[in-house]
Design a protein that fits this description.
Number of domains of chain B: 1
Largest sheet of chain B: 2 strands, antiparallel
CATH architecture of the largest domain in chain A: 3-Layer(aba) Sandwich
Number of domains of chain A: 2
Order of helices and strands of chain B: EHEEHE
Mean pLDDT of chain B: 96
Largest sheet of chain A: 8 strands, mixed
Distance between the termini of chain A: 42 Å
Structural class of chain A: alpha/beta
Largest interface: A-C, 44 and 40 residues
CATH class of the largest domain in chain A: Alpha Beta
CATH superfamily of the largest domain in chain A: Thiamin diphosphate (ThDP)-binding fold, Pyr/PP domains
Oligomer: heterotrimer
Helix content of chain A: 25-40%
Helix content of chain B: 10-25%
Bound molecules: thiamine diphosphate, iron/sulfur cluster
Distance between the termini of chain B: 15 Å
CATH class of chain B: Alpha Beta
Mean pLDDT of chain A: 97
Number of helices of chain A: 13
Shape of chain A: globular
Radius of gyration of chain B: 11 Å
Chain lengths: ~375, ~70, ~270
């Protein structure tokens, strides 16, 4: 069998995607259902002279990857709900200090310890607003292993391009399910490398001054440019400042660099949207059931389509509005109490068209669950 | 070997916060706090260039230079 | 190079209060680095949050001013990803041992080659004088108006029990000793801890009626003595100063190199 074809868990697909993207440092703390990512990387990273460390907790893990990113490395941590909660303060630091890094949250049911071995998609809004203060964040997700692999690579690319933390929000079903993964050949998926400054030694280097194209070249710790990194509002050299113009300029920059590129960052898939009267919007493992519904109903002549979101934040509101313009009904399929439904309602004209097909009991949402809801909306046997 | 001899004793008046640490711990009572709450080397001739003032100044305001530096 | 070559002069005078011991620690630290003749490019200084942690802004190294209590966790990522760097982590007592206590224990346990400097002023300076885990029972603080009932602990014993392989204690009064100890701590391969007893005249001093910065330094002189000295032997109240442990044990990054060797040779997977 071809070496590049694997039959593995989604968590391993994520780990392999990270390796493909050029990961060289992982720090983490075990937690179901994400642990296999750490286990896989503990074996894989040293094989390519990368570093793996199991830290004393998730706070330390998040901090350690930020430190390692500053020495010029591609870094990752992986966790689930409780650990993701612990990471929030340091995640905000990475936003503020503009540190490229990738954080995986394989979601399980919450709040608190919740339901560790069962599926949920309840952390969508936590990914958006988990850390304090105004900010923008990038969050990607995927429904199958090939996409888990590809979005993981994309997460690293976005982290490097925008100098930002990127959250990969997978879920228990995708993380633990086994299916086929074809590992792409090197070069098949583009990878973005760290942009390093060309400013020569002795010449003033501004780690926090965006170039004309918006990008901010970095300088590795240990190199000739010595600068300051802080979670305080700071000037273009990284030194603390409470000058109102500096504060205003920085928060605008941090938000705008992401929000102004929402369409570039938006990843999604669509199925039969052109003539769809009904549109299912879903993401992560729920999108598998949504897709199944569509594949069953289309051949029966139902004008139903699917919009599978892979970028959750920044929310691709314009794209969603455009795709849903002519739909009679929009049904958001997710395993929470309507976190993306809310974002969709805010995005589309006539939000009364938007319904929710969900499960919040730790049980995977099935095509049957979705069809039940469709029947209620449409009032006939779709 | 001869003991180092004082060449210059300078106190940066912008940096000095007048805490008196250098004054109190000088073994030769060379320093004092002036009207502006800044340290001054009032009796430089007595200075033995031990540099304790320089080492203990929390504000890095003192610089003692000797013929050996 | 001169002392001024190691600092970012444009930010002076610094923000610390008159007589604050943190400035003396900064002073000593720069002098130890000066005597080692290290290149500024190979030094990374990582700090958390607190008056003490503002030290990062003033030195001309690669500086990483992070979040409260987590400096050692950031530093672990820096060191492990690039072991050739010298990583120095100055921390306040609250920063290092309250919110950051767990990271402190585990960095010591791993014996990762980081130099931790604890600037122990026995109070939360930055937030205005609340008690810290090192204030000790009987002291006064804004959050202990009826006298503190929280016992303190011995940083030196804690560091040694956790596995640090270089552990020393000194005070800001003993500036030469501080310089020498920090120098040795930086040279030591493994996790090294230097506790510098320091004064916060503004809060700890004022609350506890200890007088000026000078008075507080005189007190530190009188309540400490070298390890095993006559004064220390005769008076159990005396706090000992000096190097309590200095031993060679496998260092974490070097050990990880062996993991890489085993992995690349296909063993044990
Ligand atoms: C997570 C978090 N909790 C609380 C604070 C508030 N805070 C800032 S500094 C500090 C304590 C400072 O004391 P210490 O570490 O001893 O340093 P010092 O200021 O005395 O030098 C506290 C509680 C914070 N910044 N972050
Ligand atoms: S020790 Fe320094 S700051 Fe204090 S009085 Fe002397 S020169 Fe001034
Ligand atoms: S060098 Fe020594 S003797 Fe001279 S002023 Fe300073 S402390 Fe006093
Ligand atoms: S409050 Fe205390 S610790 Fe903070 S700068 Fe002032 S004297 Fe130093």
């Amino acid at each position: 069998m071809n070496q590049n074809i694997k039959f593995i868990q989604g968590n391993e697909a994520c780990a392999e995607g990270a390796i493909y993207a050029g990961l060289d440092f992982f720090a983490g703390y075990p937690i179901t259902p994400s642990t296999e990512i750490a286990e896989h990387l503990a074996a894989r990273l040293p094989q390519k002279a990368g570093k793996f460390i199991q830290m004393e907790d998730e706070i330390a893990s998040m901090c350690a990857i930020i430190g390692a990113s500053l020495t010029g490395h591609k870094v990752l941590t992986a966790t689930s709900g409780p650990g993701f909660s612990l990471m929030q303060e340091a995640l905000g630091y990475a936003v503020m200090a503009e540190i490229p890094c990738v954080i995986v949250n394989v979601q399980r049911g919450g709040p608190s310890t919740g339901i560790p071995t069962h599926v949920s998609q309840g952390d969508v809004n936590q990914a958006r607003w988990g850390t304090h203060g105004d900010h923008a964040i990038v969050t990607l997700t995927a429904s199958n292993h090939q996409d888990v692999f590809a979005t993981t690579v994309e997460a690293f690319n976005i982290a490097e391009t925008y100098r930002t933390p990127v959250i990969l929000l997978f879920d228990e079903v995708v993380g633990h399910m086994r299916e086929k993964l074809v590992i792409p050949e090197p070069g098949e998926i583009a990878t973005v490398e760290r942009l390093r400054t060309s400013v020569a030694e002795g010449v003033d280097y501004h780690p926090y001054l965006p170039r004309e194209d918006g990008r901010l070249p970095m300088s590795d710790f240990g190199h000739v440019h010595r600068y300051n990194v802080t979670g305080l509002y700071h000037d273009m050299w990284g030194f603390p400042s409470d000058n109102p113009d500096v504060v205003h300029g920085l928060i605008r920059h941090l938000v705008d660099k992401i929000e102004n590129n929402v369409n570039e960052i938006a990843l999604y898939k669509e199925l039969y949207l052109d003539d769809a009267d009904y549109i299912l919007i879903s993401y992560g493992s729920s999108a598998r059931s949504a897709r199944h519904v569509i594949e069953t109903l289309r051949p029966r002549g139902e004008r139903i389509g699917l919009l599978e979101l892979q970028t959750l934040w920044p929310f691709p509101a314009d794209i969603v509005r455009e795709k849903c313009r002519n739909a009679k009904y929009i049904v958001v399929v997710e395993m929470n109490m309507g976190q993306i439904r809310q974002a969709v309602q805010m995005a589309v004209d006539d939000p009364d068209r938007v319904f929710l097909a969900n499960r919040i009991d730790g049980v995977f949402i099935t095509p049957r669950d979705i069809r039940k809801l469709l029947r209620v909306i449409v009032g006939k046997g779709v | 070997m001869a003991k180092p001899k004082l060449k210059t004793h300078t106190i940066d008046r912008d940096w000095c916060k007048g805490c008196s640490i250098c004054v109190e711990f000088c073994p030769k009572d060379v320093l004092e706090i002036d009207d502006m709450d800044k340290a001054v080397a009032a009796r430089k001739d007595d200075c033995i260039a031990c540099k304790l003032c320089e080492l203990r100044c929390p504000d890095l305001a003192v610089e003692v230079r000797t013929d050996k530096d | 190079m001169a002392v001024k070559d190691y600092i970012r002069e444009r930010f002076f005078p610094h923000i610390w209060c008159a007589g604050c011991g943190h400035g003396i620690v900064l002073n000593s630290m720069i002098r130890s680095i000066e005597t080692l003749g290290m290149s500024k490019n190979e030094i990374v200084m990582v700090s958390g949050i607190g008056c003490s942690s503002r030290i990062c802004g003033y030195v001309d190294f690669h500086t990483l001013h992070t979040i409260h209590g987590r400096a050692l966790a950031f530093a672990t990522g820096v060191k492990m990803s690039k072991p050739e760097l010298n990583v120095i982590v100055p921390m306040g007592d609250g920063d290092a041992l309250s919110i950051g206590g767990n990271h402190f224990i585990h960095a010591a346990r791993r014996n990762i080659d980081i130099t931790a400097i604890i600037m122990n002023n026995r109070i939360y300076g930055m937030t205005g004088g609340q008690y810290s885990p090192l204030s000790g029972a009987g002291t006064l603080a804004t959050t202990a108006p009826y006298h503190n009932i929280d016992p303190d602990f011995d940083v030196v014993k804690m560091a040694m029990a956790a596995g640090a392989t270089f552990v020393a204690r000194t005070t800001t009064y003993h500036a030469k000793e501080t310089t020498d100890m920090i120098r040795q701590a930086i040279l030591h391969e493994g996790f090294s801890v230097v506790e510098v007893m320091s004064q916060c005249p503004t809060y700890f001093g004022r609350k506890n009626r200890l007088g000026s910065a000078v008075d507080m330094m005189k007190q530190m002189k009188s309540i400490t003595a070298p390890i095993g000295s006559k004064a220390a032997r005769e008076n159990p109240e005396i706090i000992e100063r000096g190097i309590f442990c200095q031993e060679e044990k496998p260092e974490y990054c070097s050990e990880y190199d062996k993991v890489i060797e085993r992995a690349t040779q296909g063993q044990g997977v």
